[in-house]
Description:
heterotetramer; B: alpha/beta; six-stranded mixed sheet; 3 helices; 8 strands; globular; D: about 160 residues; alpha+beta; three-stranded antiparallel sheet; about 20% helix; elongated
Amino acid sequence: MVxxxxxxxxxxxxxxxxxxxxxxxxxTLDGEVIVDMEPVFGYLHRGIEKLAxxxxxxxCIPLTDRLDYLASMSNNLAYCLAVEKLAGIPVPERAExxxxxxxxxxxxxxxxxxxxxxxxxxxxxxxxxxYMIREREKILDxxxxxxxxxxxxxxxxxxxxxxxxxxxFLPALDKFLxxxxxxxxxxxxxxxxxxILLARSKGVGILPRELAVxxxxxxxxxRASGVKWDIRRADPYSIYDRFExxxxxxxxxxxxxxxxVRIEEMQQSxxxxxxxxxxxxxxEVRSDVPHLIRPPVGEAYGHIEAPKGELGFYLVSDNSxxxxxxxxxxxxxxxxxxxxxxxxxxxxxxxxxxFGSIDICMGEVDR
Amino acid sequence: xxxxxxxxxxxxxLEEKFPGSVVESGADxxxxxxxxxxxxxxxxxxxxxxxxxxxxxxxxxxxxxxFEVVYQLTSIKHNHSLVVKTxxxxxxxxxxxxVVSLWRGADFQxxxxxxxxxxxxDGHPNLKRIVLWEGFEGHxxxxxxxxx
Amino acid sequence: xxxxxxxPDWPGGFWLHWGVFVxxxxxxxxxxxxxFIWFERRAMAIMQARLGPNRAGPFGVLQPVADGIKVxxxxxxxxxxxxxxxxxxxxxxAFVPALMIFAVVPFQGGAILADLNIGILYIVAISxxxxxxxxxxxxxxxxxxxxxGAMRQVASVVSYEIPVVLSIVGVVLxxxxxxxxxxVMAQDIPFILxxxxxxxxxxxxxxxxxxxxxxxxxEADSEIVAGxxxxxxxxxxxxFYLVEYGEALAISAIVTTLFLGGWRGPLLLPWLxxxxxxxxxxxxxxxxxxxxxxxxxDQLMALAWKFLFPLxxxxxxxxxxxxxxxxxxxxxxxxxxxxxxxxxxVLLWSRFFKLGWGKVEV
Amino acid sequence: xxxxxxxxxxxKGLSVTIRHLLRRPVTTQYPEQRLNTSRRIRxxxxxxxxxxxxxxxxxxxxxxxxxxxxxxxxxxxxxKYKVEKFEVDTGYCIFCGLCVEACPYEALFMGYAYExxxxxxxxxxxxxxxxxxxxxxxxxxYAHPEIAATLPKQTLLLDKDRGKR
Lengths: 367, 148, 362, 165
């Protein structure tokens, strides 16, 4: 006697405790098992690409802060690189090094939030994320010392950075670089071999390698599936070819690999920071660029390895002070393409973990 | 270092494979006819030497008398990239063949271009507005979009 | 009726003794629950490098009182299409058994409300009535999430009842009596040393029954919003909150009595020993809750049936054999044997069993 | 779960949390204890220097949000524009600091205070008098190194957190 059951539709989000922002999943559940899942975006759409067409090239920089608001230093860097490529503006050496230091610090801060909220979704009651936010506060202190803000930095300018780093910045950074490896070991001791976390995340939400390439995933999600592809190594922008660091990759592409890849990437960032701090030259931090830049007619596509993936800016200029077209290649929106394939067949408890392991930021998805 | 393949070199190969499909080829980009774009795309993806298996980004730009859609392709194996452009004319219902069948990464990006720019992609499995709500009329990213 | 445990010099008859102890137990339970709420929030806070409540009263001690007043002032919403009577009755049916467990908990030599000679059986029976209350709450709220939560609770309590009871039987075998006083009296060596595997199984099973720490599936906020008490607010929600902490206190009290030697201790006052051990056990519960992530529902079931249940059976057999072949001398010789047995069994058992399978082909 | 490490993983995790019992919490109790903000803080107000300002409206042009409204009239004797109205709507201002960097005469500063919330949006529109510097409206050192030198050093969590590992 077959009991007739029919799946019921549950809307997880947009105001759900663990959807990392306003994101809705129309999930069809058969009991606890997920049968189908359709993501719904648009709750945080501000039309940044339309706004940018009315602002000067410098006025667009505060807009880029609000794309992926957890990594706005990387957004600034990507935008400035694209404009410099478009207008052919040189960048002094010291500014390049300061940009690398800021971008790598931002990568650590963004990964801390990503790993912390992933472990929080697994159920570890607020402890890992509170430890990681404590470390992130130290990075935010450094950012505040340099540019005055803790979230939307608006620090980088076309042709360099807005202000030089104050003299108490380097000793503080040095102290941070000495302490941080100890904190990362502590996170590993806390949960790396925790049997329950292994049971919950190993083999869950697998993103196979070909599917990852086919859905053009990028960033830790892509490398966790075993693809050794990092823009800093594949297409080195600014001065990344002067540092040696290696690219951590996962094997299977499940939630546990994504968690491990992010932890190891933090350690690699610390290596880059140490080398960048030693080679930091003297000199001014900004080439003389007119306040209203008028790039020649043309287009340019600049991309960097942002913490969440390959962040690209496609700018078209018609020799006026405002960009004719300002398109953002949002890594988090494209990483969500394979979300349905990763989730079907798993249970409700896994849906939250798989979604948490992709680490999205709604500001960048909806733009 | 990702080698950006030059437009002419690829244009030459495409010319003898698909005669008359390459409109113009600049130093770093390649303009192809929208009609034969799908075959060119599958050719680029499948031939041994090119292997463009990773679609980095799709962008649509509104140049008033035509829409230009720019595809940034990359090959993970050979670490080289190519920029291919197609144009579609007409402002009421410009259409282009969808490449979701080749690269599933284009799914959300094409839906976003449909939603904000108004270019519809035939062959797309689920062409709906991605960011704006269903009842929204007009496509905001078009140059002639008047808010009120 | 003979009150064996009642020392001769106690004034008044049975009813006076009953009245005094009802008041004592009610005050003890209420005060300790308030204390535990505050203790958990402070302990978790310090373990997470933050401060915890410190505004209401010195060191935030009046925070539970403030919560209580706030909850009483909150509006008590009853879901429109929910089953009103069952919705009203559920918290009562859940809370009363949690309170009744303390009737047989021995605070001191003679200080026990009713020294039943089947004390531990009474506890096992009463503690499963709470599940009825929880299921009533889940059903009456007429809400998808609550029903899901209540179903999970019933499933987990049913499957964890067996390992818990089997490990209790191990203790009873050693103590030779079901009465809680006798168990405490028999513990010259705390049973945690004689029965380490039994303690481990009882503790894990008890955590799952009161859905705390790694097994808090019922109100897993990241998944189903708040489990069975989603639709409760106001005083009824407060009662469920008391049930959670009341059961945590009950489990700590039972663990202390069964495994840590109840009120027996070298120099301090006996009931002070009892209190210290209860707080210590509760601290371990809070400590585990701060660190360990949550388990999935199918893994929860698999853990009960594939890991705890077989081990509980084996533990029972080993204890029985030990009692048959009792060495004439002291029991201390058994302690290393049992600990070695526990380690071997846990290593062996976890080697060749897989917990729960993941993907279901849809 | 396969207990590959037989519960050692959980034991290690527990050892980390118990060790935190011996460490001092890192919270600062905001209203009573306050941290020194950075010397270059972009506080949530703008400060305007009437003497230095020549009414050139560069700041109004560079502001991405267009929140600076400035009206000037020609005055012969001082040989510079007379600023009739200089208004900043801090309700819409995003405190990006572009105006402070763009001002050629360094007449504009970011505020040092960060507690300028109001109950009504109307009060957020600061006119000339409301913009001038005063003892509790101190300018911050953003894009003004000489002011930054006078401000107190920033308290860093790095120095405060004596965590022992």
